[in-house]
Amino acid sequence: xxxxxxxxxxxxxxxxxxxxxxxxxxxxVIVWDDPVNLMSYVVLVLRRVFGFDAATAERLMxxxxxxxxxxxxxxxxxxxxxxxxxxxxxxxxASLERDA
Length: 100
Description:
By secondary structure, the protein is α+β, with helices and mostly antiparallel strands. The protein has one domain: CATH 3.30.1390.10. It is 39% helix and 19% strand. It is built from 3 helices and 3 strands, in the order E-H-H-E-H-E. It has helices at 39-50, 54-67, 77-89; strands at residues 27-32, 69-75, 93-98. The chain has a 3-stranded antiparallel beta sheet. Helix 1 (39-50) crosses helix 2 (54-67). It is globular and about 35 Å long.
């Protein structure tokens, strides 16, 4: 047919893509120790942001205090970024990393 648009090329999916690069692969939210915030405040923030019960929030706060950091959540990247932003809003040091 004259004037017909050429067919779009067929693109085969790359089956060799590393699964760690998938958007829905879990990321971890890490809270870091800092010399500024009181331990009771860190417990309060963890309860507000993540909905932890008092015992869980206190255990994580003590891990931050003694080990310098604690993994507090494992979730998709967008949600992890949101939680890190919330923690920063409360003045806590936090970051996210790809889950190993």
